[in-house]
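Incident log, entry 3
Record: 1-acyl-sn-glycerol-3-phosphate acyltransferase (259 residues)
Problem: checksum mismatch between cached and fresh output.
Input:
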Amino acid sequence: MVLLRSALFNICFYLYIVVALVVYAPAFFLPRRVGWPLIVLWARASLWMLRVIAGIKIEVRGRENIPDGGFIVAAKHQSVWETFALLTLFPDPTFILKRELTWLPIFGWYTMKMKMIPVNRGKRSAALRAMTADAREAIAEGRQILIFPEGTRRPAGAEPNYKFGIVHIYRELKCPVLPVALNSGLFWPRRTFKRYPGTVVIDIRPPIAPGLPGENFVSALQGSLEEATDTLLLEAAKADNPPPGARAIAARIAERGKH
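Fresh output:
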């Protein structure tokens, strides 16, 4: 049943992406704020398909921690899931993403039209300066900057691997950072087409105020994110029908906590 539902969802999900890229083309001729609701509609429709076809629901905790105006969202990255699901949580978000994604036909055009923030990973210093300038403009416009502090997808329960970019942008923008923990990697694992039924939980943690020294900031961010993420993974492992691998991940987390 998981194989069948996963195959059906994947067909519908990727077909809908292709259709939406064409049908939403009028967004290119509209102001960004007018066209943005079409992107949110696509994300919400994708979550609806995921629930109806694959049996994956969503639970959001900590909405009261979301501040007003512009801020940085530092989220765990375990799956493709959060690359669209997080768009539905904030009023005017923008992703920091690989510059190569902007080169993709049609999709890349949408990222530029919606003023996503590209970064050239091959040119470290120049990339940081360009990213910072774009991010500062977004914050001034009251937008929310979505960034994955580990840079790339990591398996659920993996050892943390935070990059310097989040420290740099925190120092430069001098705005709150909102940690967002999740357990999506249990239900939409990377490098497989299988989608396992259950509930993806997003835990929005209290924001970290600007002005901390870099080491203190990283310690606060990692402590908040990793503790909350481990809690979500342990909760999923205790469910009546946990997704494959959840109990093994829980055992590794428990072992890690002993050291």
